[in-house]
Specification:
11 strands, alpha+beta, transmembrane, two-stranded antiparallel sheet, 14 helices, Alpha-Beta Plaits, membrane, single chain, transmembrane helix, AcrB_DN_DC_subdom, Multidrug efflux transporter AcrB transmembrane fold
Amino acid sequence: MLRISGPDHDKVRDIAGKARDILATDPNLTDISLDWNEKSKVLRLDIDQTKARALGLDNQVLTASLQTLLSGAAVGEFREKDKTVGIVFRVDRDSRQDLSRLKDLSIHIDGGRFVPLDQIAKIRYEAEEGMIWRRDLKPTITLQADTAEGVLGDDAAIAAYERLKDLRTSLPSGYDIKIDGSAESSENAMRWLLQPVPAMIVLIITLLMFQLHNIPKTLMTLLTAPLGMIGVTPALLLTGRPLGFVVQLGILALAGIIIRNSVILIDQIDRHIDAGEPLWDAVIHATISRFRPIMLTAAAAILGMLPLVSSIFWGPMAVAIAGGLFAATVLTLIVLPVLYATWYKVNQPMRDTPIKFLFNTST
């Protein structure tokens, strides 16, 4: 859906027609239509006020006469047993329905005289808008189309909007073409969703500082949050699911799960260091000891998403969370220890080789 707006009705209709003609060649679109119907035929009377006043007529009397002649006026009722039938006075059907005979209608004037309608009024036939949709008080036409098989509506709307770039740049001041429908709703929903994100990031950083009491560790934890996208993208591509609003919502939730795993791993490393282990051993042992709990927790979350995969609405979000969580969990157990060792310049301690250690019977 695309929205064409402007101050003049005819100009808006003309722009909408040009947009429809341009998009008619798009193989991804079918059944292109506008929500304004064709113009309605109307009959107008231009009254010669000088002649009308000379004959003792005014607009109100002339309107009442035409209303009586064409639509009719109730003059009485006819009773037949228990039924009442209205008696309406008006001219015969041929005179009412034949537009060429309207000019011959007799209009009553003072003194019991009559004058033909075309003596005091000029009849014009025109076309006018039967219905005008407005948005922000501006006349607005919505261009709508169905999509071809396998084409998403939002993608088709964005592509159609780009195809109209030359037309959009040539529009006069006050006229515009904008994306409408589900694509606009998704954009607005995403904008509303992202509004609290800055405050959310500040709150997350504050909570991490309270938990870790260390700026470098907080930064390392935050750097693992985007790892989920490495799994989200392949999962959506393999299943053919769209990157819509629910997926974006799932990505935000996924970031919180990844940060939680990072906090757990860093806390385990600190526990090993407090126990007196060297940094190198603490990083390795903590990663190994937390591997099973983190992987089992991730597996439980992934399995919990499987019943939603078949859902039309929640399916893309379930696929994104499952794929992103699997990749992010594996990568967190690899990337975070590397970041930790790099930041604190952890070097492998010099020790005897494992073979000498195994055959040293004195120990």
